[in-house]
Amino acid sequence: MKFTLNNKEYVVPEGLTVLDAARHCGVYIPSLCYHAKTGQAGKCRACVVEIEGMRGLQTSCTVQLKEGMKVVSDSERVRASQRLVIDLLLSSGSHDCLSCEQNGDCELQQAAYYLGIEHPTFRIDQEFKIDDSSEFIYKDNGKCISCGRCVAGCNKTVVNEVLDFGFRGGETEIIIDDDLAMGESSCVQCGECVQLCPTGALTDKKARGKGRFWDLEKIDTTCPYCGVGCQTTLHIDRAKNRIVRVTGREVTPNNGMLCVKGRYAYEFPSSENRLKYPLIKKNGHHVRVSWEEALDYTADRIRDIVGKHGPDTFSAFGSGRITNENNYAIQKFVRAVVGTNNVDHCART
Ligand code: SF4
Ligand code: SF4
Ligand code: SF4
Question: Which protein residue has the closest C-alpha to ligand 3 atom 6?
Answer without folding.
Answer: 144
